[in-house]
Design goal:
Homodimer. Its cofactor is Zn(2+). Belongs to the class-II aminoacyl-tRNA synthetase family. With 588 residues, the protein is of the alpha+beta class. It contains 19 helices and 28 strands. It has an 8-stranded mixed beta sheet. Strands 1, 2, 3, 7 and 8 form a 5-stranded antiparallel beta sheet that branches. Helix 2 packs across helix 3 and helix 12 packs across helix 13. 33% of the residues are buried.
Length: 588
């Protein structure tokens, strides 16, 4: 078999993976119909990770039912049933599914055009309405590498006024060890769930009184402010100024920016003094007003303007998910205004900043270049020119990228940065977008060397994306064990006895005076319990002090991994300082 053919039938090939999982959904539906013929089938696509099938059953599927379905699926795989595609005219297709008693399939066919080619796939005694494609045989699927993972409620066609169905999710791989590795990763992800850790570590909370509006608790605020302090330091070094724009602005501004027409359903609005206002879903229009508030010369450019702006967007309640999907968040925006000649260097400058920030958190990334969508403004020539500049800038930096065809913003192409965490999951955080729309709409200008007025070129960019979401990402990436520079509590002093309490307080006071975040555990508990509790809190360092340490002036240093040593207080401070100042990822 040639390398090309081998790759075509490899899980590395997204099309093959999708086909494999789609076939698995049909195998699952066949297994369900064998076990419970009265179940009615809806739809069963492949998704980003695996597959699902929506079904209408007269009982609730339990974990025991899922085990029965899995066992039947394995039998179907062993039977090596051939998948055969055939087509029927619309009326025959309707009659075929009516006779089978499948009302959801009948409705799907009724929605198809009169002259549609309606295709079906048959495997053994089971036939399903489907456009395909599929594998040629159920024998291609590795039966012992299938796992049904969950069953949730789902509305037929996503409509809450329609029937409530049951959605069974599954995953499958060509090899059993790949399934085992995947399930192990899922278990690890559950332990790292930022919602669970956020509660255990006292970082944030979510309440029914404000769905989608997170509350940050004292330790969460320390983490958040430390992150923001770092953001400000980096941006100052890269030549940014910082602004703050109002959280609410009038309808006229949002009409001018285009948000009122294109984004109104996601915006919170109100009326003040008979005038419509909207709470900002994005910072950009306010940034345009700041730029246009005074004249600019070519000598002022590039002008790099950052804003940590709190924005609000109406998300459906079903889409809310911890800090990953909220209704208000702080976007670490920047708008960079420049001449056309400065564009390539500015793109490189932004990517260098991204490199620095992401490496501090140990987050490698892939770049995706999103090109001209069908619904775009500007000429094809302008788009190709701007796309070429983005390509040239990152290629000259030695970066690779993949093309995401037709997924640019309507106003310009963009670079998206997909970060990979410690479990290999990817998160789209950073983005660099070329915009020719807003400078035009807001009639932004600068005076060129020729004394004439010119339109500046503009980049939108975010590094972290949303401060809240990024905190969720790094909480899971580090499993709550944040690097020492970022940890809400960096050192916990643990006196062994009451006699060592004064020395513990002295040690803590000295660390506090040096600017480190420190707590002292004076509880009347055994030292073993104090150590275990501090490890659960994921504090980087514990200083265990007793009579011996009080007399010598030393500290018994224990890190959260259980490694311990005795050193002078000054030696510990030097070690702590080096680790915090260098923003080391690992304890040294």
């Amino acid at each position: 078999m040639s390398e090309e053919v081998k790759n075509e039938f490899s899980f590395e090939n997204p099309e093959y993976r999708k086909t494999y999982w789609h076939t698995c959904s049909h195998v699952m539906a066949q297994a369900v119909k064998r076990l419970w013929p009265e179940v009615k089938l809806a739809i069963g696509p492949s998704i980003d990770e695996g597959f699902y099938y929506d079904m209408d059953a007269p009982f609730a599927f339990t974990p025991e039912h899922l085990e029965q379905i899995e066992a039947e699926m394995r039998k179907i795989c062993k039977e090596k049933l051939k998948l055969e595609r055939f087509e029927l005219p619309r009326e025959e297709a309707l009659k075929f599914m009516e006779e089978k008693g499948e009302p959801f399939k009948v409705e799907l066919i009724q929605d198809l055009p009169e002259d549609a080619h309606i295709s079906f796939y048959k495997q053994g005694e089971f036939t399903d309405l489907c456009a395909g494609p599929h594998l040629d045989s159920t024998g291609r699927i590795k039966g012992n590498a299938i796992k049904l993972t969950a069953c949730n409620a789902a509305y037929w066609r996503g409509d809450s006024n329609r029937e409530t169905l049951q959605r069974i999710y599954g995953i499958a791989f060509p090899k059993k060890d790949e399934l085992d590795a995947y399930l192990q990763r899922i278990e690890e992800a559950k332990k790292r769930d930022h919602r669970k850790l956020g509660k255990e570590l006292g970082l944030f909370m979510l309440r029914d009184e404000g769905p989608g509006f997170p509350f940050f608790l004292p330790k969460g605020m320390v983490l958040r402010n430390t992150l923001i302090d770092y953001w400000r330091q980096v941006h100052k070094r890269y030549g940014y100024v910082e602004i703050s724009t109002p959280i609410m602005l009038n309808r006229q501004l949002w009409e001018r920016s285009g948000h009122w027409d294109h984004y109104k359903n996601n915006m919170y609005t109100t009326v003040i003094d008979d005038t419509d206002f909207a709470i900002k879903p994005m910072n950009c229009p306010g940034g345009m007003l700041v730029y246009s508030s005074e004249p600019h010369s070519y000598r002022d450019l590039p002008l790099r303007v950052g804003e940590l702006g709190l924005v609000h967007r109406h998300e459906l309640s079903g889409a809310l998910h911890g800090l990953f999907r909220v209704r208000c968040f702080t976007q670490d925006d920047a708008h960079i205004f420049m001449t056309q000649a400065q564009l390539k260097d500015e793109i490189k400058n932004v990517v260098k900043l991204f490199d620095e920030v992401y490496s501090v958190f140990g987050l490698p990334y892939q770049i995706e270049l999103s090109t001209m969508p069908e619904d775009h403004i500007g000429t094809v020539e302008q788009w190709e020119h701007n796309q070429d500049i983005l390509k040239e800038a990152i290629t000259e930096m030695g970066k690779e990228f993949v093309i995401n065809e037709g997924d640019g913003a309507f106003y310009g192409p963009k670079l998206d940065f997909h970060l990979a965490d410690s479990l290999g999951r990817t998160w789209q955080c950073g983005t660099v977008q070329l915009d020719s729309q807003l400078p035009e709409r807001f009639e932004l200008e600068y005076t060129g060397e020729d004394g004439q007025k010119h339109r500046p070129v503009m980049l939108h960019r975010v590094v972290l994306g949303s401060i809240e979401r990024f905190i969720g990402v790094i909480t899971e990436h580090f499993a709550g064990a944040f690097p020492t520079w970022l940890a809400p509590v960096q050192v916990k002093v643990l006196p062994i006895t009451d006699r060592a309490a004064d020395y513990a307080n002295q040690v803590a006071a000295k660390l506090d005076a040096l600017g480190y975040r420190v707590e002292t555990d004076h509880r009347n508990e055994k030292i073993g319990k104090k150590i275990r509790d501090t490890q659960l809190e994921k504090v980087p360092y514990m200083l265990v002090v007793g009579d011996k340490e009080a007399e010598s002036g030393d500290v018994a240093v224990r890190n959260r991994h259980g490694e311990q040593t005795v050193m002078s207080f000054d030696a510990f401070v030097a070690k702590l300082k080096e680790e915090v100042d260098s923003k080391a990822l690992e304890q040294n």
